[in-house]
Amino acid sequence: MMHTKRGYILFLMFTILSTCSVLISLYFSQVVVYRQLIQMLTEKEKTNRLALSAVCLVQGLMTPKEEKNEEKQKTIPAAQAKETKLSNDQQFLIQLFDCWNKELSYQLSGKDDGLDAKIFLNLQSEQGKLNINSLYDFEKKKFLFEGTPKDRKKLCSWIFEKIATITKKPTLFPAFEKYLAKRDFDINDVTELLSIKEFAEVFQDNLFIEFAKTNESQPAEQQQNNDSKIFLTDLFTTSTEQETINPWLFSPSWIKILDLKPKQKLNDEEKKKIFSQIAKNANWDSDWDKNLKDFYQKEYKNIPQEIKTILTTEFEANIFSLLLKANIKETNSTIFTIVKIRAKDRLIRLDVLKTYQI
């Protein structure tokens, strides 16, 4: 018996073909998406590893340079014959000056380095920041040295007033004091301060120091605001054991707070002249104007009294924070790491204390 409705087989066949086409299209679209995702994740992993490996660049910058034989054999005029030999600390700062608190970049090429990429780095000293745990006695529940010239409560009040002036926000001191009073132990990491609502409002987007943004189309007023930024981990640290700040190594945020204007470019003779004044022990009442006035372009009498009480008299520079960024194609990876130097003879080793993925 023949069907009265013709063409049902053709209709069924086209239905099956349409369903198969949809399934195949979905499969290929997923394959394309997954391939793009895998490629992106691979590039991200490469940039992460490259950023981490940039620590080796810093290690190279910190390694003492060997004197050339030609320089050793070079005859020097009698007037320079009595030139004082620079100490290791003096040579170290002279060597680091061009990358200290400055942004450096290195271009890698596939032909010479096996990878087309760019590395950025910025180096600061943790000894140029204030140890947040040097302010408060958590057992006695009060600020250290209250009622003395080293009163840490007055120091904190002054610091947060300056921060309020720069950020144009209310002072953070009342919230900070309240937070410390509730704690029974030291602060383990500066980022813990973001648990304070008032701190989060000011420093949520200004936690770590940033690389300079060169945008010519950016309004001048906005560029000026970017230049006046201060950063929480650039002000405070928990990685040092000292209760003072090394004025030779002020971080960029402390330089802004103190309104210092350090010279950005020095020739070799100027570097030797300035950094040859570094000594293991200092008396800043007399040594500031002699050693640092020209460099920071500020006299000691104009330094706030609160800050004078926390200037270290013993030179030490062995803990550094590094901002490292790697760029491969359109992928970027930025890390902030804190390292401690171990030096033996002319060899430098870096122990990583903390690492943050930004």
Based on CA atoms alone, the radius of gyration comes out at: 29 Å
Write the H/E string, N to C: HHHHEHEEEEHHHHHEHHHHEEE
- Contiguous helical run count: 14
The tally of beta strands, per DSSP, is 9
**Classification by helices and strands:** alpha+beta
Sheet of most strands: 5 strands, antiparallel
Q: How much β-strand is present in the residues?
A: 15-25%
Which word captures the global form?
A: globular
Average pLDDT rating: 84
Low-pLDDT parts are: 69-83, 220-224
Strand order of the largest sheet: 1-2-7-8-9
End-to-end separation in angstroms reads 77 Å
**Helix content, binned percent:** 40-55%
Give a verbal description of the structure.
The chain is α+β, with helices and mostly antiparallel strands and 358 residues long. It is globular and about 110 Å long. It contains 14 helices and 9 strands. It has a 5-stranded antiparallel β-sheet. About 6% of the residues have low confidence.
Offer a quick outline of the entry:
It contains 14 helices and nine strands.
Topology readout:
Elements: H1 8-53, H2 55-62, H3 69-73, H4 88-96, E1 103-108, H5 110-113, E2 117-125, E3 130-131, E4 136-137, E5 142-143, H6 152-167, H7 173-182, H8 197-203, H9 220-227, H10 232-235, E6 236-237, H11 252-257, H12 268-275, H13 284-296, H14 305-308, E7 319-328, E8 331-344, E9 347-357
Parallel strand pairs: 3-6
Antiparallel strand pairs: 1-2, 2-7, 4-5, 7-8, 8-9
Helix pairs in contact: 4-12
